[in-house]
Amino acid sequence: MDSADGNGNGNGQEESLPPPPPVVPSDVVPLKAEEVLSAPPEPVKKKITRLPIARRGLGTKGMKIPLLTNHFNVNIGKNDGYFFQYSVNFTYEDGRPVEGKGVGRKIMDRVQETYASDLNGKEFAYDGEKSLFTIGSLPQNKLEFEIVLEEARSNRNNGNLSPDGNGDNESDKKRIRRPYNAKAFKVEISFATKVPMYAIANALRGQETENFQEAVRVLDIILRQHAAKQGCLLVRQNFFHNDPKSFADVGGGVLGCRGFHSSFRATQSGLSLNIDVTTTMIIQPGPVVDFLISNQNARDPFNLDWAKAKRTLKNLRVKTHPSNQEGKICGLSDVPCKELIFTLKKRDGSEGTEEMTVLDYFVNVRKIDLRYSADLPCINIGRPKRPTYLPIELCELVSLQRYTKALSTLQRASLVEKSRQKPQERMRILSDALKTSNYGAEPLLQSCGVTISTGFTQVEGRVLPAPRLKFGNGEDFNPRNGRWNFNNKKFVQPTKIDKWAVANFSARCDVRGLIRDLIRIGNTKGIVIAEPFDVFEENPQFRRAPPMVRVEKMFEIIQSKLPGAPQFLLCLLPDRKNCDIYGPWKKKNLADYGIVNQCMCPVRVNDQYLGNIMLKINAKLGGLNSLLGVESSPSLPIVSKAPTLILGMDVSHGSPGQTDIPSIAAVVSSRQWPLISKYRACVRTQSAKVEMIDNLFKKVSDTEDEGIIRELLLDFYNSSGKRKPDNIIIFRDGVSESQFNQVLNIELDQIIEACKFLDEKWNPKFAVIVAQKNHHTRFFQPNAPENVPPGTVIDNKICHPRNYDFYLCAHAGMIGTSRPTHYHVLLDEIGFSPDELQELVHSLSYVYQRSTTAISVVAPICYAHLAATQLGQFMKFEDKSETASSHGGLSAAGAVPVPQLPKLQDSVCNSMFFC
Fold this sequence. Notes:
By secondary structure, the protein is of the alpha+beta class.
């Protein structure tokens, strides 16, 4: 859950993805030799590769405001040299490859110490894996070295290893030789390629080549190595110091560890180093027992679940007392310390062996006082076949070990609360980090003439005025500070609720009082709500039943008593908002019966809470809470002049450890043009962890397309007075820079095919805009403690030297430091001016029906997110085999059946059910 994860700014992913295609003018098609020789009579229609468009000037609207940003200017003194890249290969002396992670840096440090003269005294940047970079070349294209690494431990502690069933010194030595004794390695360094440093200067002039990515990667590796030498934990482009002041306990034996992200970016004002605060999760260091007690929330070590402990501890590193030796936990003993027997040489010097328990050995032979280990399992730091057992209280977990499981709701809340910083505090932490990292002293940076300034970059922002909003009874309002409220205001299009009922899964709540308040609040907003048909109480005998059963039983009651299908159902959940009834309940209502419904958790209910619930109910039932002034008069530039479809696209994946859960692609589309406030969604499953949406166009026969886009185009046509859109604006969430070309060439192609399949002669114009939240650029007001004002847009200085991007902070950041959304315009055939496009994006942050504030990213993307999350809940309780089909994307192993989502009933599929 560290903020570094995800695919923020693309740079972190360069290593795993293929390089971007070569940059050619978009209208040039390279010819193949054989085509030139025997030109075919028919001109062959070649598919042109689209590339992200160049910037079309800067915006001018809005009030100018001076800002600082966490980009630090980088000067490069040398432009004529080369980075030389070498491949590194390690083997043991018997030729076996070295598997273990993390030993590479130790080996390369030793090579540098031992063979400095053979390397001409050259410093190198090593990436910790297989690549090494130098400035200028090494003496030869291929070098081979042999080195020896000793683990720091003295002989007298060998006794510590005895408890494993063979005490004679010989076999002890054999066993411990691999992990602990001196080991010999062969190191082979061979030339791979060279990267020109001028690639950086070219990129800053707007001519970006793949060499730029490589050259910048070398600089990133130099900084990573600099951090590794200071003993930091490295996670992609983030590093974490072992400093208890940066740890925050989030419960369950897990700590949030604050560290720093750093990446080099090409910007309009040169190369800059973007440094930001980030957090990763680590295991609480210290005694193993203390960690297990907090991890399992146990009273004491004698109430621990040892099967669970074994899974949790596997592969964690421990330091043992009193020998100070490090080892990896490979398992736990099956019997307690006082019963675990091993064989060792007789201690009186006579021939033969004797048996002894691990407890006796440590207490009587080693004279170590053990307070509580006797009845607990021992820790094995050897191997399964050749164990090395230690009493649990002699083992301490080493610091900075990542915790990679998903956090619980409570842990996540605690992390958010403990890791946020106010803007000024964030600036102070970043300034201090730059000073202490002391990049000026890094010899490799010196030799390529790189200096990094320590001052925040100054940029000019512009604050766009908030769009005017329309409410019921013809009232207008200008939002202030990105907020408005509905006190004494009516919804612009209120609905009517006459046939409805309540399903109560919650034992504790005054339901009658709640209904009375809901009707009263609805009336103040202009919604006429009749008395409900009935309140259906859950039969108490099913409260402990599985979620699917509870929902089934509730529906049996509802069906037996309701005269006909209700227009709306209100569901009162037990006292947890994210309880496990939610998914099955939504599936039953939306997919099986087509009933609009609203869940609520009736704890701490007040008028404001009920007001927010009414916003959602009105939108789901087809009403509108507020409209933009420019939408009702229609006067939005371009969008109001010609039928325009707005799409929001997102893919949500299971949490990091889950590879078997399909990813969920959601596309929402605007309807009832000229409105830009009403949407519907189409959601499909696809292969796990696949980011490109693979069902946009799905031809099943010459006349049939079962893809997502056709469904949305037909809805737009039917809801917009039988008009086809002339313009289609696509907002895409969640892709990194390295995937922009795929969005432009794979996804957009599918969308165009879906359009052509409907009508061959129809040629809508497209705009494609990617929104990124997962990046590390922040803005600060130089002399003010608060966040940047809502509506702040930045398109100069730290934006891309060639590509068309801008940052927008549409929302008022109330806590922590605001995270702007980074918008990248990849294509615009429609012809927006920079001001028109920024105004449209800003306006789309004000049409989100669920809240009375501007949101931080355009509403269609938020809706896509909500729809994917809600339908993803359907999958949680499904039996995988039952819903499997051969539908969905390909994975490495070929076609893998992906369980399909059930289709929503017609009565709800066009609604804003996700609201």
